[in-house]
């Protein structure tokens, strides 16, 4: 089952990509939790897919977008484990991007597992709902 099947509205991703984009090499920029950080009821992840949509949406070409920036929102989080911190690195375009993480999104019974591994970071979240959106962006200069 493609990971986009776990979204309540897969069109938020499949409206730009013709099929579920690979989560390998996901350029993770940050992880945050709230509104109650103690209970980890809500977690957000932000980064870029490793590959742009093919074909590139005309609007993205016209605006010079070179990144497929995606946000994941996890709700009903019942387990949260993070070892390490996301790393930011130069992107070769006078800016920065998240260092790659191999991201996985899968169903386990009634729960959804969102996990990631890299040389510098390991995380695992168990949640009841996941939402995602993708938007084109130019290279970041933060």
- Shape, per Cα inertia axes: globular
**Run of helices and strands:** HEEHEEEEEEEE
- What's the helix count? 2
Structural class: mainly beta
Number of strands: 10
* Rounded radius of gyration (Å): 15 Å
The end-to-end span amounts to 36 Å
Number of spatially distinct domains: 1
Question: How would you describe what is shown here?
Answer:
- The protein has helices at residues 11-14, 58-63; strands spanning 26-33, 42-48, 67-75, 79-84, 88-90, 96-98, 100-108, 111-117, 121-127, 129-137.
- With 142 residues, the protein is mostly beta strands.
- The protein has one domain (3-137).
- The chain has an eight-stranded antiparallel sheet with strand order 4-9-8-7-1-2-3-10, with no helix packed on it. A two-stranded antiparallel sheet has the order 5-6.
- Strand 8 and strand 9 (121-127) form a beta hairpin.
- The longest helix has 6 residues, at 58-63.
Write a compact overview of the structure shown:
This protein has one domain (3-137). Helix content is 7%, strand content 48%.
Keywords for this structure?
142 residues, mainly beta, 8-stranded antiparallel sheet, two-stranded antiparallel sheet, 10 strands, 7% helix
Write the layout of secondary structure elements.
Elements: H1 11-14, E1 26-33, E2 42-48, H2 58-63, E3 67-75, E4 79-84, E5 88-90, E6 96-98, E7 100-108, E8 111-117, E9 121-127, E10 129-137
Antiparallel strand pairs: 1-2, 1-7, 2-3, 3-10, 4-9, 5-6, 7-8, 8-9
């Amino acid at each position: 089952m493609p990971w986009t099947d776990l979204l309540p509205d897969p069109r938020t991703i499949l409206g730009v990509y013709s099929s579920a984009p690979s989560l390998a090499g996901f350029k993770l920029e940050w992880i945050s939790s709230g509104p109650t950080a103690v209970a980890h009821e809500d977690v957000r992840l932000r980064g870029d897919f490793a590959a742009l949509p093919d074909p590139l949406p005309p609007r993205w070409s016209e605006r010079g977008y070179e990144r497929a920036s995606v946000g994941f929102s996890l709700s009903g989080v019942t387990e949260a484990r993070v070892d390490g911190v996301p790393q930011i690195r130069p992107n070769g375009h006078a800016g920065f991007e998240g260092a790659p993480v191999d991201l996985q999104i899968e169903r386990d019974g009634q729960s959804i597992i969102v996990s990631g591994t890299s040389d510098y970071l390991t995380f695992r979240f168990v949640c009841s709902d996941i939402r995602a959106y993708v938007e084109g962006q130019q290279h970041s200069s933060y």
